[in-house]
Predict the structure.
Amino acid sequence: MESGAAFYVRQGDTYILKLMGDVRYTMGCALGDFLDRLFAQTDYNDILVDLTETHSIDSTSLGLLAKIANFNRRHFSHKTTLLSTNPDINQVLDSMGFYDVFNIRDTGEMITEALQQLAIHAPCKDELTRIVYEAHQTLSDLNPRNQEAFKGVLDTLRPRGHD
């Protein structure tokens, strides 16, 4: 699978977000919209992220995952479980400080319900810029190392009036 795909399913009181293939910023609008809708709901008590079939993931997508970790911590008072079996992905997760904010397990989850695919539509430039900025801001907030790593990206994309 060359391009990325995102799937989700509600299983009991948990939403599972499964990202597959090459997960890139071009999926940001669709993932961001999905998360906004999910965060507005109150009929569940956990979000699990499955990266077991992810080949690569960029920083924008990692920032969106960090938003999930922040949401779960604030609303459900626990860490988000993230499943990842790819050593390269695990190394990226470690370098971003994800082991501090996620429960990362190297196993797949039994998904018993049919997955629904998120439609990845062509993003609006302004919306994508906002999502990329917010994702990198969320990553930067995780630790000082990320603040330094993403300072240039944030300075370049900073919306006017946020100086």
Q: What stands out?
A: The chain is about 45% helix and 25% strand. The domain at 5-157 is CATH 3.30.750.24 (Transcription Regulator spoIIAA). The first helix runs from residue 28 to 40.
